[in-house]
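[recover] target loaded
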């Protein structure tokens, strides 16, 4: 059953496999060695590579979050610029329609 789970879960647990440009591929954790004590609560030599891997993943997440923040700021600035332009264009169209209403009606009816 564990083999089936790994087959289905691997694709979404390792996004670097899907998007190789995003991050370097993940390294598998080393197998337990004879030097690690089985009853050691700290994990001995097994914990350091796993902690290093978690730190690396956290750095990638932190970097990606910074990129997302800068993207959101630029999108927000573009939307504000576009909203200002749309307001000006809408105001001009409303003014033209209000001042030249008779001519517009004549053009539409003829």
């Amino acid at each position: 059953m564990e083999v089936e789970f790994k087959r289905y879960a691997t694709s979404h647990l390792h996004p670097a496999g899907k998007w190789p440009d995003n991050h370097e591929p993940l390294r598998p954790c080393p197998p337990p060695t004879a030097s690690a004590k089985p009853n050691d609560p700290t994990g001995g030599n097994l914990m350091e590579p796993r902690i290093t891997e978690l730190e690396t993943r956290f750095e990638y997440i932190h970097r990606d979050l910074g990129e997302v923040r800068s993207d959101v700021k630029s999108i927000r600035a573009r939307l504000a610029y576009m909203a200002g332009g749309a307001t000006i264009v809408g105001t001009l169209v409303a003014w033209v329609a209000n001042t030249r209403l008779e001519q517009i009606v004549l053009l539409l009816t003829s």
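[recover] notes: DSSP finds four helices and no strands in the chain.
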